[in-house]
Amino acid sequence: MNLDTVKENMQKVVDVIKVDLGTVRTGRASPALVENVVIHAYSGTQSLKVVELAQITAQDSQTIVITPYDNSIIGEIHKGLMEGNIGLTPIIDGQIIRISIPALTEERRQQLVTLVSQKLEGGKVQIRQVRHEAMAEVKKQLNDKTISEDDMFRLEKDVQKLTDETIAELDLLGKKKEEELMVI
After folding, report:
1. Which 3-state string (H, E, C) describes the chain?
2. Helix axes 3-22, 149-182, angle to 10 degrees
3. Rounded Cα distance, 55 and 125, in Å
4. Three-state SS across 128-158?
5. Dist. CA 169–CA 167, nearest whole Å
6. Which of 164, 158, 165, 166 shows the shortest CA–CA distance to 1?
7. pLDDT 10s per residue in the chain (184 long)?
8. What angle do CA 51, 52, 55 make, to 5 degrees?
9. Which residues lie closer than 8 Å to 57 by C-beta, 6 or more apart?
10. Which long-range contacts (CB under 8 A, 24 or more apart) does 180-184 make?
11. Which of 7, 142, 165, 172 has its CA 20 to 30 A from that of 101?
12. Using CA of residue 23, residue 78, residue 74, residue 57, what is the dihedral sign?
């Protein structure tokens, strides 16, 4: 069992949760709200990310501006945003698409805080699964006599320390996101 592999697997979970939390609307304009929307253009499907179809910027705290690299696909981008169920209404304004972000109600903020908590709990479950697999591997190595009992205890302690640190990182991400949600 390799601790670097365990750490890498836990970091992958954190990265997925970061992306997932980025899609939670906070009442502030953020390119992350729309960059993963799938657009049907050029006889295929692509995400709207900056490097693929358009430049996405937050003009101010309430407006996202999407500037397509190719103006001939502005209609496809608009259609993809409408079909993406992101809860926002895009408006074509000449060569760009504008999306106004409405202020969140207190009730909606509480719903989003609950959603963030659910996403974080899912991440923690995945982290614990990585820990469980690592612990099983350590026990297997002990049974195969490739490590000593002292090494087993040391490795288990190291895996648990990694788990605790990673869960603390997730908690910090969640706390920051909740603070963003509660700011009016």
Report:
1. CCHHHHHHHHHHHHHHHHHHHHCCCCCCCCHHHCCCCEEEECCEEEECCCCCCEEEEEEECCEEEEEECCHHHHHHHHHHHHHCCCCCCEEEECCEEEEECCCCCHHHHHHHHHHHHHHHHHHHHHHHHHHHHHHHHHHHHHHCCCCCHHHHHHHHHHHHHHHHHHHHHHHHHHHHHHHHHHCC
2. 10
3. 35
4. HHHHHHHHHHHHHHHHCCCCCHHHHHHHHHH
5. 5
6. 158
7. 688 999 999 999 999 999 888 877 776 777 777 877 778 777 777 666 644 778 888 888 788 898 888 888 888 888 888 887 777 888 898 889 998 887 778 888 888 899 999 999 999 999 999 999 999 999 999 888 888 889 999 999 999 999 999 999 999 999 998 888 887 6
8. 60
9. 31, 64, 65, 67
10. 180/26, 180/28, 181/24, 181/26, 181/27, 181/104, 181/109, 181/112, 181/113, 181/116, 182/109, 182/113, 183/26, 183/27, 184/27, 184/103
11. 172
12. negative
Number of neighbours of residue 97 by Cβ within 10 angstroms = 23
How many residues does the structure list for the chain? 184
Q: Tell me, what amino acid is at 100?
A: S
